[in-house]
Amino acid sequence: MALTPAQRTALEAVTTATLTTVLLKKGVRFCYIAGSNPIVQGDRRRIVGPAFTLRFTPTREDLATVDSWSSPRSTRAAIEEMPPGCVAVADAMGSKAAGIFGDILCARMAKKGVAGLVTDGVVRDGAGVIGTGLPVYCQGYVAPASVAALNFVGWQETIGCGGVTVVPGDIIVADADGAVVIPQWKPRWNRNAWKPGSWKKWARACHCRGFTRPMPRPRRGMRRLGRVDPYAATSSSSSPRPIRLRARPLMPCSPSAWISASSRPCVTQTSCAPVSVQVASSSSQSA
């Protein structure tokens, strides 16, 4: 998901606490990466960028070796694939037994223009990592290298970091409170959620369309049926074009709805001139 300069500037002005509340209203409950604390306490920098994911698994002696650092599938190879402005998100399964990156790799990331590093694990060479100037959000720093407890398996895959699913390209926003994931897809509004003034807006829209009184609000599960609007003004010209409206529910929810539905006047869409009806008498019928 590419960020425009305007979107990046707007997100840089919003705190992660506000973003979690907004995403909760949109229906996204799990967006905060647990354990993603700034490595420097009190660091008030805010980073924004698309996620570049990295995945670690539990270590295995025949896979997690020192020689694996120079293999084609290694953390070094993944860093070379990182585009400028991205946020590296590493799934370390919350392990504190080994640091995923040290000062050398963090310095390379800073040199490439990576916006920051977010992980639910830890890093190593704490003083050196802080000296690189790269914003890092983790659970702290330890001495052991990653191969002591973790095995790097790949990058740009769907991962789980801090209890949140992260897809490559998701927008990451991190500040002093931690890191938040903004999904690429557009969250849907809750149709059943009540919004102040929504009924007034609906009534105003119905009035602008020519209805004499507001039509019932569309409900979930209704089918669109092509039927003539009973409240449209009649015209002496040719039969107007039918307006597609949402059908009423087959079973109204309350008896009052039945009464209001049955008492509605039946008005046709076409205009008919009065026609005199002559009723034949019984004598004429016998003749």
Written description of the protein model:
It is a single chain. The protein starts with a helix and ends with a helix. Helix 4 (103-112) packs parallel to helix 5. It contains eight helices and 15 strands. It has 287 residues and is of the alpha/beta class. The relative contact order is 0.16. Mean pLDDT is 77; it is low at 187-194, 221-237 and 243-287. Strands 1, 2, 3, 4, 5, 7, 9, 12 and 13 form a nine-stranded mixed sheet that branches. A two-stranded parallel ribbon has the order 6-8. Strands 10-11 form a two-stranded antiparallel ribbon.
Number of strands: 15
**CATH superfamily heading of the domain at 5-182:** Ribonuclease E inhibitor RraA/RraA-like
Question: Which residue ranges are poorly predicted, with pLDDT under 50 across at least 5 consecutive positions?
Answer: 187-194, 221-237, 243-287
What is CATH's topology name of the domain at 5-182?
Glucose Oxidase, domain 1
From the spread of the alpha carbons, the general shape counts as: globular
Measured by DSSP, the beta-strand proportion falls in 15-25%
- Count of DSSP H/I helices: 8
State the order of secondary-structure elements, H for helix, E for strand.
HHEEEHEHEEHEEEEEEEHEEHH
The largest pleated sheet is described as: 9 strands, mixed
CA radius of gyration is 32 Å
| Termini separation | 87 Å
What's the pLDDT, averaged over the residues?
A: 77
What is the CATH first-level class name of the domain at 5-182? Alpha Beta
Helix content: 10-25%
CATH architecture of the domain at 5-182: 3-Layer(bba) Sandwich
State the secondary-structure class. Answer: alpha/beta
